[in-house]
Design goal:
With 289 residues, the protein is an alpha+beta fold. 39% of the residues lie in helices and 22% in strands. It contains 9 helices and 8 strands. The strands form 2 sheets. The protein has a 6-stranded antiparallel β-sheet, with helices on both faces. Strands 3-4 form a two-stranded antiparallel ribbon. A hairpin with a 2-residue loop joins strand 1 and strand 2. The termini are far apart. About 3% of the residues have low confidence. This is Nuclease. It comes from Mycobacterium montefiorense.
Length: 289
């Protein structure tokens, strides 16, 4: 039997509007994330993508409800989730983003647990933190462990120890500050290989507001842009000389049409001019005679 993994649990701490610790189990038969506008549905999807997808595949904010509270606070970012951006306030003609955790140092944790059909489990943990009054450039730590791990206590110890990764040294098998290294370890564990196209599709599907028609979905989200389009500029450069030659030919054809039998006309003109010259030489008295 081929081993296959599925997402079995999501844990978040201080993520967006989810203040404090939350644990959400998922069935191997599928799950539906439902709720009112602004209840945090897309925030949970963003959390999953943070723990599983590289930064260029996440499509943050694309699935967010434009009518939800705080939707006009600008494009969502990891740092805004860490601070807990939830809305916007207008004061004296200026707008200010409102944060649940806007003052001082703050942190967030996201953990994704995957379980296989053989019972094997692995937990990936992503930690983000901002110091002082910073609103951007959060620091990162990525940790991986075998088993279904509860993260609340260990993350609180990590935060209390001024974000010292030593708390993960003994009981977690991998720790790094580099996202690509973490994802490589996670993918190797759960058997994901050559997954660029699948990751891109997952990122796009996560960002869907509505599926719409099947034809449109396949065209926009499953068909890759053909490589031939990247060679289009070179092809156009090769066509340009042919276009120029055709234009020159068209000009020559118009000239020929306008000038017509110019050579014969010139010969006639020369001949008749000679005849007129002879007439001019005839003596007037000879004409009278």
């Amino acid at each position: 039997m081929t081993e296959q993994f599925h997402l079995s649990r999501l844990q978040v701490i201080n993520w967006g509007v989810f203040d404090g610790y939350h644990s959400i189990p998922f069935s191997d038969g599928g799950a539906l994330i439902a709720g009112a506008s602004g209840s945090g549905k897309s925030s949970l999807l963003e959390a999953i993508s943070l723990g599983f997808l590289p930064f260029n595949r996440r499509n943050f904010n694309a699935s967010g409800d434009s009518t939800a509270a705080g939707s006009n606070a600008g494009r969502r970012t990891v740092d805004k989730y860490v601070r807990g951006a939830w809305g916007q306030r207008s004061d004296a003609g200026t707008s200010k983003v409102m944060y649940l955790r806007g003052d001082g140092t703050t942190w967030s944790a996201i953990a994704v647990t995957y379980t296989s059909n053989t019972g094997r489990t692995v937990t990936g943990l992503v930690l983000k933190w901002l110091t002082g009054e910073s609103r951007s450039d959060s620091s990162s730590r990525f940790v991986l462990a075998d088993g279904d791990r509860d993260i609340e206590k260990v993350c609180n110890r990590w935060a209390a120890g001024r974000f010292d990764a030593v708390v993960f040294k003994d009981d977690w098998r991998f720790s790094t500050k580099v996202e690509s290294q973490y994802l490589a370890q996670l993918y190797a564990t759960i058997g994901i290989r050559a997954s660029d196209a699948a990751q891109q599709l997952l990122g796009k599907a996560k960002s869907l507001k509505s599926v719409g028609g099947l034809e449109q979905f396949v065209r926009e989200f499953m068909l890759d842009e053909p490589d031939s389009l990247t060679r289009l500029p070179d092809a156009l450069k090769q066509i340009d000389p042919l276009v120029d030659a055709r234009e020159l030919l068209a000009v020559a054809q118009r000239k020929r049409k306008i000038l017509g039998d110019i050579e014969k006309l010139q010969q006639r003109y020369a001949s008749e001019s000679s005849d007129l010259g002879i007439i001019d030489l005839v003596d007037q008295s000879m004409v009278r005679a």
